[in-house]
Amino acid sequence: MALMAGAICLILMTGAAQAQTIDVETISHYDVEITVGDTVHQKTTVTLRNVIDKPVVPGIGEFRLQTYSPTRIFFFSIPGTATAQPVEVKNLRAITSDGKLLMSRVTEGEEYTTIRYEIWYPIQPGKELSYILEFDSPDLARKGILFTNIAIPVASDLPIEEYSVTFSSDQHLVYQDGASGSLARGEIAFASAEFSALPLPEVGLPWSVVLWGLVLAAGIAGVVWYVRRETERKES
Amino acid sequence: MKSDYGTPRKRTDYNERKVSIGTIAQVFLVLVVIGAMAAGAAAAPLEISMNESVSTFTVGDTATTQVTGGIIILNNGTDDIYDIWVPVTLANYDPTYGLQVNFENASSDVVVHNAKPASAPAMDDDGANFWIQIPQLRADQTVVLSYMVDGDSLSIDGTPLSETSLILVETSTDASRVVSGREVSWTVYFNATTNSGFFADGDEVAMEINHYLSKNSTHYGSAGWTELGPISNNFTSQGTSVLLDGPALYGNTTTPAQMQVTGVALTEGSAVSVNTSYDVAATHAKITGSIDEPFGFTTIAFSAQRSGTGEDSGVISGSVVYDCYATGEALVSVTKEHADGFWKGNATFTNKATGLVYVLTDYALWATEQGTFGTYVEDAGWTPGYDSSTTVLYKAADLTTVLNPGASAGSQTIEFAYEGIPVIWANATFALGKNDTHGWERSYSIETKWNETYGSEFIVSQRIWVVGDYLIKATKHVVPLAGEDTKFRVYIVVENVGGTETPDAYIYDMIPTNMTLADDTGVWSEGTSTYVNSSALFGEYSNVTAPMPGYDLGQIWSLGSLQPGADGTGAYDDWGQITGGQQFVIAYNMTGSGNFRLSDVYIVGVDPVNSLNDHTSPIITLFGGSKSANYEGMFILLFAAVMVAGFVIRRKK
In this complex, do B625 and A87 lie within 8 Å of one another by their Cβ atoms? Predict the structure, then answer.
């Protein structure tokens, strides 16, 4: 987690974005809708609020996307092998909440992908403007045998007064954590979820750990029991 | 007599008790008030003043207010006044503090009762919750009591009094940011408006405003200013303004460093605000980053007079002085004669004071047997008789007889038959009338609390953002082209008036509806009609159609780093700055057709963090992605390893 947070901090500070001392805008709402299927569809709705007494034109914004997941060999994830990678982005759509198309483009760097968009609509003092960034990506979720896991970060160089993350899928939602809150400038939160074809109840822990942990524990217990029984039989 | 609310204090023990700073300030205020009373015309001999003092501290849009109340009872005449009773109702007060005696130099004790004692005279005191008793108050003696107003229990337009102010203040500067390390100047605009949620039409507010520059961090200033001052171009829409050197306490400012506005007279419903402004010249020590730097403060000293009468003219908390009972020096004489077998007796009541007018409200005249004090003489035929009783006792009540200084009033004559020698008695009740020249008078006032250092406790902090790094200023010129109607030349001048290089920047511009780019070659470089100076700083150009209602085209230029030190004049032909990389100029032509509005052209935006143009947004950076992981494979691998281990063990066994 610390490594991941460090990486995010680095990409937030990279480029022209600098420590800001005077708030011009804040993000009053930051809503993420994640739909997990063969690929992941992410719809992010951002509401900017003008907090100064003059109109503000938001201008250019960047949405930087990075995965920090362990390396996989077939379906085996190797712990401790996570590295920062760019995210493949498909079917990007950037619009205002009332449907006006925003100019946008995607560039892929060594460690992260940048969605660059432009907003030329002024926000009057105290007023808000909402825009939507919507795309598909095959890189955001990790599929296993019985479960699919997803964990996404939420962060910005503007304060986020209220964020929410909702997950949906054709499969059953069996675990969810960190779905809402507020964030200071540069602070990072993670929202995670787990889906399964099995209709399991939510127990506050990922079932992929609980179920497979139980299976592994049962296997170990079986082997121990078997070894003891064989030892006792030999002694008698 | 003992107090049942606080301890009575005599002048002799006044010096022995501990006195808080607040009390000292309050007493100072009292002395000021007393002085003002003495200077005023036609003061009543017994003055009862209820005063509430306002302390407000404002930083930006946040105001905090505290109100303290005082009751001052002053013998303002030349006669001794006795048996003073003042019933009051305190409303919205702090019950923990209650009503306390802060200062008194009365000849007698001063007692505060929180219930009406049986010994108190009849007064108009329904609803009173405190009764102040002063048995003797000689000329020029004073009693000061205080209470605290609970600012959270009072509200103005739904906002607790503690979080707003009776005078609403707006302060701003023409420059939202200034650069460190060089001489800069800005204009301060300061407007004070009566709070219409509190004041009613006709209420009057007299005000004095003082603006101070300060380099002293303990007095709302900052030592970060290497030069601060002078103040110039003082303006006020009300009263008179003058420039003064200002107190030395606020640091080594360049004089004049104070602007004083006197004679401001506001009336709710008509003249409700005063606008003032002044220019400040200053140099701030070079810094990195940005700071919200204090450069001084403003004090407001005001006094308010409510337009109502009586209790309606009262104070902020709604507290009231109900009534007053008091007497002065007087004389009662009784005459007795025996004629024609009947005894006759009467009394005379004389006002012995020199400056007090009494109202005789009742008296009694009676006869007792000699050698006794309480055995009344009985006579069935006595006149004028009273309640059909044979007892020789006459009572007169509900009188309104006015006794001027030195004047006398006589009683009825009682006549009765008695074989012995009777003793004839008389007594009377008389009190000071409510009269602003010869009796008692009450007054209410609201004013700012006195502060020994600043003069007033209504203080507004003045601050401005100081930027230590780069600071971009964008200026747009629209010049009609000679001989070519409706064609205009547009220059956008971008300067770095800060002290360090800028990061890459974006310049935004919009073309209004019914105007179009003209002579557009599609190339942005020197030597073309649409040019940039210089191309070394130019990144790329892009545009967007219909960026917002009223505009047909939005244009963006990206720039490299601008060098620091531009003069900020906005001149588009400053070749020294252009070749020095401190300034970047964009130029293009446009024409208007039909109903075009040239005024809509004056819009330009820049997009780094530090900009003089407030309609600047930094690049908004969001972060997303994933740290998803699924370790099912690892669990299965481990499970398989355990099974294999079990299998191996079985084979070995």
Answer: yes
Of A22, A30, A142, the CB nearest to B628: A142
For residue B410, give both structure tokens. 């006589």
Is the four-CA dihedral B128, B131, B137, B143 of positive or negative sign? negative
As to burial, measured by CB atoms within 10 angstroms (0-12 exposed, 13-18 middle, 19+ buried), residue A41 is middle
Give the alpha-carbon dihedral of B242, B247, B252, B256, to 10 degrees: 10
* From the candidate CATH numbers 2.30.110, 3.10.20, 2.60.40, 2.30.30, the one assigned to the domain spanning B11-150+309-325+439-447: 2.60.40
User: Domain residues for A101?
Assistant: 2-204
A233 and A197 belong to one structural domain: no
ipTM above 0.90, yes or no: no
Q: A60 and B506: CB-CB below 8 Å?
A: yes
- Beta-bridged to residue B68, according to DSSP, are B53, B148
Total structural domains within chain A: 2
**Over the stretch B289-316, which tens digit does the pLDDT of each residue have?**
678 899 999 999 999 988 866 556 689 9
Token pair listed for A72: 């996989």
CA angle B578, B583, B584 (to 5 degrees): 90
Asked if residue A219 and residue A151 are part of one domain, the reply reads no
Q: Architecture of B472-606 per CATH?
A: Sandwich (2.60)
Q: Residue B28's pLDDT is what? A: 38
Residues 209-238 in B contacting A (C-alpha not used; CB under 8 Å): none
B412's tokens: 């009825």
**Domain locations in chain B as residue ranges:** 11-150+309-325+439-447, 159-305+456-463, 327-432, 472-606
pTM, entire model: 0.58
pLDDT digits (tens, 9 = 90+) for A73-93: 766 777 777 788 899 999 999
Parts of chain B with a pLDDT under 50: 1-42, 609-610, 612-616
Sole residue written with tokens 């390396």: A71
Q: Which residue of A has its CA nearest to B617?
A: A58
Q: Is the CB of residue B281 less than 8 Å from the CB of residue B232?
A: yes
pLDDT of residue B310: 56
Residue among B259, B289, B59 nearest B177 (CA) = B289
CATH class of B159-305+456-463: mainly beta
Give chain B's mean pLDDT. 83
**A141/B625 Cβ within 8 A:** no
Compute CA distances B268 → B202, B280, B302, whole Å.
5, 31, 14
Distance CA A47, CA A130 (A): 4
pLDDT of residue B607: 58
pLDDT in tens, B356-376: 999 998 899 899 988 878 889
